[in-house]
């Protein structure tokens, strides 16, 4: 955007732009690429859309080596800046890197990506992220038409994430090993999920949907949880048909009525 100014003005603006620790950059890739800049201290967001050509793109801007047709919209709380790139993923990366450089932001805060537009997009974007930074705070990935190879890659990279929400459609023969130590881990379509996978996770909140873990395995996990220093505060795991006397074997349990409630407010 500064390329619409003179080179002297460009240098003056960039030199005077202070580092903004309150700014967050979020990256989205679905049908189109989107980048959001927000601040905890100010109202209003700025959105950059990486889109198809639009009729109202009367201006262009040079970002990196690309001359991008652009248009700007404004509503009460947001600026919407539309940019055209032939390759949406490359456009997303180029604009994100430019914004991080200009605002002196070290890390992209969060990534939301699905595989509808491109089955390889989740891996391409996560690879780019970890080539530019060591960790990622918040990730949501939905893959309905990707490969087991991509799914394995994404799960392997979970160990560098603080919050990871993954919805991965894989083949019936899918298997993998991975570990996670962060704040929150949510996994969906997890029919492949094993006890070994479960024992490799340590976080505050854990939710696993679609898993078919057996009572014996869940019993081992509960005993592990009770005798270790796991961080877990909330756990919700789908499993095979529950058999209470197997699930809680060797674990002291007090059975209560279904409508029993505890009040911890006092």
Automatic annotation (TrEMBL):
It comes from the Eukaryota. Residues 185-237 form the Sdz-33 F-box domain. This is FBA_2 domain-containing protein. Pfam families: FBA_2 (PF07735). InterPro entries: F-box_Sdz-33 (IPR012885).
